[in-house]
Automatic annotation (TrEMBL):
Superkingdom per UniProt: Bacteria
Location of the ABC transporter domain: 4-229
Protein name in UniProt: ATP-binding cassette domain-containing protein
UniProt subcellular location: Cell membrane
Length: 229
């Protein structure tokens, strides 16, 4: 399991405006670090740098100690599984959505991923299992059900690193608790970075980094930050 680190990362989208002001943090192998902060703090920018949509102006981002600038796009994508806020599903079966385009997606792997994402409770209510049609734009599934399919779609790759990018932000609070419990479970054996604007949507992080205006404003364990309000 690889660790992830940002080392003195300075980054801006435009000349003359710096967004990340020498950001450093480490996610030890297998640990779960959450990044929270208000809108505009720079959270998504961290995700974009991790996928190398952009490169830092200075400093570096490493996986397993290796500068990701030295890593191929293909291995970067294989290493990091993302669960985004709004997952677009294909108008096809649940199984197809989980396995789409992935060499790893054998029927056994799809079933294991579906189990990992706890899809079974909801497909019991549907006429069939993984053969069930998702329907036009996934509309036959609830938001939570769609998010479970998205989690399974990520799990089928068995990525050593998990990036949860506002993964429950679009859900109502009860559904959110269900999905958080699942994410907590599946993140246990992976290096995990979760990004959220609310502290309450972080499940089981070992450390919380509070970002503000491109800097780390605070860091600590979850209960300590909750006490601080
Ligand atoms: P967060 O995810 O915490 O809401 P972002 O990382 O999206 O914050 O944005 C951090 C800052 O970078 C904001 O001031 C935002 O306006 C700016 N920003 C984000 N994307 C771009 C872009 N493509 N071009 C220029 N500025 C951007
Ligand atoms: P793949 O099988 O190609 O890895 P993924 O669903 O993991 O498919 O996503 C492919 C790539 O698309 C990711 O590696 C990432 O670069 C990008 N991507 C997908 N969703 C997002 C998102 N919400 N934010 C940032 N990047 C994303």
């Amino acid at each position: 399991r690889p660790g992830v680190a940002f080392e003195n990362v300075v980054f801006g989208y435009e000349p003359g405006r710096t967004i990340l002001q020498g950001l450093s943090f480490a996610v030890p192998a297998g640990a779960h670090v959450a990044i929270v902060g208000p809108s505009g703090a720079g959270k998504s920018t961290i995700a974009r740098l991790l996928f190398r949509f952009y490169d830092p102006r200075s400093g570096r981002v490493t996986i397993d100690g290796q500068d990701i600038a030295q890593v191929t796009q293909a291995s970067l994508r294989a290493a990091i599984g993302i669960v985004p806020q709004d997952s677009v599903l294909f108008n096809d079966t649940i199984g197809y959505n989980i396995g789409y385009g992935r060499a790893e997606a054998t029927p056994e792997a799809i079933e294991a991923a579906a189990r990992g994402a706890a899809i079974w409770p909801f497909i019991e209510r549907l006429p069939a299992g993984l053969d069930t049609e998702v329907g036009e734009r996934g509309l036959k599934l609830s938001g939570g059900e769609k998010q479970r399919v998205a989690i399974a779609r990520t799990l089928v790759k068995d990525p050593p690193i998990l990036l949860l990018d506002e993964a429950t932000s679009a859900l109502d609070s009860r559904t959110e608790q269900d999905i958080l419990a699942t994410l907590h479970r599946v993140s246990r054996d992976r290096t995990t970075i979760s990004i959220a604007h609310r502290l309450s949507t972080i499940a089981g992080a070992d450390e919380i980094l509070v970002m503000d205006q491109g800097r780390l404003a605070e860091r600590g364990s979850h209960p300590a930050l909750l006490r601080a309000g």
